[in-house]
């Protein structure tokens, strides 16, 4: 998996590609943790169009991000999820927890 971070205005976008599973938990946590110390960043966007695999560990990591972002008073949005990732997130009812945007 590759993880890239871009900050624009009040949003930070974490772009991921490949397998999103337990193997990347440290890299994913490091990516979003740095954004909590940036007061200008109000929203963290997770770009998932190139994620071709998502497992329960990844769902847990996203939930942890959601909880920590809430504590830091930042929003989290999931963007452009691939069909594979979207199917898993639908089963987990993530649309009730996250803002999920398509075509952004």
Give a description of the structure.
With 104 residues, the protein is of the alpha/beta class. The chain has one domain (2-101): Transcription Regulator spoIIAA, CATH 3.30.750.24. It is built from 3 helices and 5 strands. A 5-stranded mixed beta sheet has the order 1-2-3-4-5, with helices on both faces. Strand 3, helix 2 (56-71) and strand 4 (75-79) form a beta-alpha-beta unit. Helix 1 runs parallel beside helix 2. The chain is globular. The protein starts with a strand and ends with a strand.
Strand order of the largest sheet: 1-2-3-4-5
Largest sheet: 5 strands, mixed
Outline, from the CA principal axes? globular
User: How many strand elements?
Assistant: 5
At CATH level 3, the topology is Transcription Regulator spoIIAA
Q: Name the CATH homologous superfamily.
A: STAS domain
Strand fraction band?
35-45%
From the alpha-carbon coordinates, what is the Rg to the nearest angstrom? 12 Å
- Which structural class do the helices and strands define? alpha/beta
Q: How many helical stretches? A: 3
Q: What is the total domain count?
A: 1
| The CATH architecture | 2-Layer Sandwich
The string of secondary-structure elements, in order, is: EEHEHEHE
Helix content: 25-40%
């Amino acid at each position: 998996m590759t993880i890239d971070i871009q900050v624009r205005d009040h949003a930070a976008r974490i772009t991921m590609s490949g397998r999103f599973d337990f193997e990347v938990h440290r890299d994913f946590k490091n990516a979003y943790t740095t954004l909590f110390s940036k007061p200008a960043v109000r929203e963290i966007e997770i770009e998932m169009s190139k994620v071709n695999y998502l497992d329960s560990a990844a769902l847990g990591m996203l939930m942890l991000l959601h909880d920590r972002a809430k504590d830091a008073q930042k929003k989290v949005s999931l963007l452009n999820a691939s069909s594979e990732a979207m199917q898993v997130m639908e089963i987990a009812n993530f649309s009730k927890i996250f803002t999920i945007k398509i075509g952004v």
